[in-house]
Amino acid sequence: QVQLVESGGGLVQPGGSLRLSCAASGSISSNSIMAWFRQAPGKTREWVASIYNITGTTNYADSVKGRFTISRDGAKNMLYLQMNSLKPEDTAVYYCKILGTPHWGQGTQVTVSS
User: Fold this and answer.
1) Is 34 within 8 Å of 51 (Cβ atoms)?
2) How far apart are CA 12 and CA 23, in angstroms?
3) DSSP string, the chain
4) Which are the contacts of 89, defined by CB distance < 8 A and separation ≥ 6?
5) What distance in Å separates the CA atoms of residue 91 and residue 11, rounded to the nearest whole number?
6) Mode of pairing for the β-strands spanning 108-112 and 58-60
7) pLDDT class for 66, splitting at 50, 70, 90?
């Protein structure tokens, strides 16, 4: 059984930064891709960024490229999302996920507002 627990969300002004964390536990394959998704009010959940655990290869949605950085600590089973230059349109609940599995965390709210 895999468990994912996100943290680090909050209220931040436009242009500010936040760092999200995701603690993963349970049976996690080393050959996995971990990702961040987000869901804004009234919108469908969308992919934000992903990282391949073995090589560290990263990919980003165009909307966050150059502003967000995904990283992981394999030894601690932690996933991170450093978010800089935040915009009001980044407001959403952010979720981490292991791609190819049905497991989701509870999410962490990020609100970008002045």
Assistant:
1) yes
2) 22
3) --EEEEE--EEE-TT--EEEEEEEESS--SS-EEEEEEE-TTS--EEEEEEETTT--EEE-TTTTTTEEEEEETTTTEEEEEE-S--GGG-EEEEEEETTS--B---EEEEE--
4) 40, 63, 112
5) 9
6) unpaired
7) very high
Angle (CA) 91 11 66, round 5°: 55
Is the Cβ–Cβ distance between 53 and 77 less than 8 Å? Answer: no
Q: Give me the pLDDT at residue 28, please.
A: 78
Please state the rounded mean pLDDT for residues 46-58: 94
Q: Of the candidates 53, 67, 74, which has an alpha carbon nearest to the alpha carbon of residue 19?
A: 67
Biggest CA–CA distance in the chain, Å, is 41
Q: Are 95 and 81 in contact (CB under 8 A)?
A: no
Mean predicted confidence (pLDDT) in 51-66: 95
Which residue type sits at 1? Q
